[in-house]
Amino acid sequence: MKRTLKILKWILISLISIVLLMVIGLTFYTLDASKPLDEMYETIETLDRTDIILTEDFDTYKLSVSNPIANIIIIPGGKVYTESYFYLAYQLACYGYQVYLTKALFHLAILNPFGPSKYISNDLPNIIIGHSLGGTVGSMIAGSSNQIDHLILLASYASNKINDSDVLLITAEHDLVLNQTNFNQSLSNYNTYVHTNIAGGNHAGFGWYGVQQGDGINSITIKEQQDLTLDIIINYLTENLS
Fold first, then answer.
1. Chain segment 120-159, per-residue pLDDT in tens
2. CA distance 11 to 129
3. Degrees (nearest 5) of the Cα angle 154, 194, 138?
4. What is the domain range of residue 10?
5. 76 and 54 assigned to the same domain
6. pTM of full prediction above 0.85
7. I need a surface site. Which of 24, 67, 135, 207 has the fewest CB within 10 A?
8. CATH number of the CATH domain containing 58
9. d(C-alpha 197, C-alpha 199), whole Å
10. Number of domains in the chain
11. Are 206 and 178 in contact (CB under 8 A)?
12. Alpha carbon distance 202, 206 (integer Å)
């Protein structure tokens, strides 16, 4: 009996140690997570947000509007602060969409890939927008649910089959982070897709957090890329939402 208790004690200590090491490792790994630039908040101040209600929970920001057109779930890129996508989220809400901007442990959505599923609506059309790693996570959700009407991937691709969602792919001319080979190979995973490339843009420009290591140099401003991205999304949804 004493031997069994001793073994169980060491197993428990080992498990706790492993968890602590993982937490410490992830903490150090994400210390350099990209934060939103002040200019993003200054630009948001110029928007008419009168009819938008912002609420915050431990794992999401919700932007509510009256009589929403559809439900949008935004999943940020890896090692990027959620708030870096506030401008895109507010602009979508200004167009009449209900928007959930999801948070992730250690800024890595892959650690809880199906967490955003809780925000799928049973009453509205559902759209997932994912940037980079967030797009991979969004693809996992779309591949496992028949409730996602549209999957919008920003500088991202699905590594699984997408059978029930229409797909919009938005890439950027100077993106050196996106693996182009994997992107091209992933096209066979979609039943139907539309692809648009933003001239002058780069990988980081799909968020508002500035320079990203290994990325190409953009020849348009972040705001210009954000607004072009918004126009592409709005035009696509206007044409395709029934």
1. 999 999 999 999 999 999 999 999 999 999 999 999 999 9
2. 42
3. 40
4. 1-31
5. yes
6. yes
7. 67
8. 3.40.50.1820
9. 6
10. 2
11. no
12. 8
pLDDT digit string (tens) for 207-230?
999 899 999 999 999 999 999 999
| Angle at CA of residue 89, ends 83 and 95, nearest 5° | 160
Q: At 43, give phi and psi (nearest 5°).
A: -70, -40
| Type of residue at 140 | M
Reading the block at residue 220, the tokens are 């348009």
| Cβ(241)–Cβ(70) below 8 Å | yes
Q: What DSSP string describes 41-103?
A: HHHHTTS--TT-EEEEETTEEEEE-SS-S-EEEEEPPTTB-GGGGHHHHHHHHHTT-EEEEE-
First to last CA, the chain: 66
CA pseudo-torsion sign 132, 134, 219, 196? positive
Q: Are residues 13 and 93 in the same domain?
A: no
